[in-house]
Structure prediction request, 169 residues.
Amino acid sequence: MKNTENPRVGILMGSDSDWPKIRAAADALAEFGVPYEVRVMSAHRTPALVEDFVKNADARGIKVILAAAGGAAHLAGVVASHTVMPVIGIPVATDFCGGLDSLLSMVQMPGDIPVATVAVGGGGPRNAGLLAVEILAVGDAALREKLVDFRKKLVEKIIEKDKALQEKL
Ligand code: RP5
Prediction:
């Protein structure tokens, strides 16, 4: 759920134009009852704001940062350079090669400064949210239980889909 008072996850994006493409990350957090906040700030347009946000994130209770950007997608890398908390990068689709530019500029980090980059589009943004939940669940038994339950239901759902297909064919 959106909670700017006590967020456990910070979602940063380079532009408000990224939001429709990545909101599945926030939806996944909401599904698991994880409080998050969403902010627009850019590694290139507002570098000082990014640094300030990241340096204060720990003290505000944030444990994981998701960073979404497209094109010259340096936001996640810059965020990671300012913190030792886990950073998950969400490369945003662009008109250039479907977002290959975003993916490569985000995923090709130099050694020592990791960014866990998810897929461009498709299940990528949702996986970023789920990965953040999994990271938090390492120290949160109730959240871990929810994840185990989620996976059980996933299996049931796929079995149901298979059954429905068999009946249709
Ligand atoms: C990146 O540039 C943003 O993350 C966005 O994906 C892209 C375009 O931004 P706008 O020109 O739409 O603001 O920094």
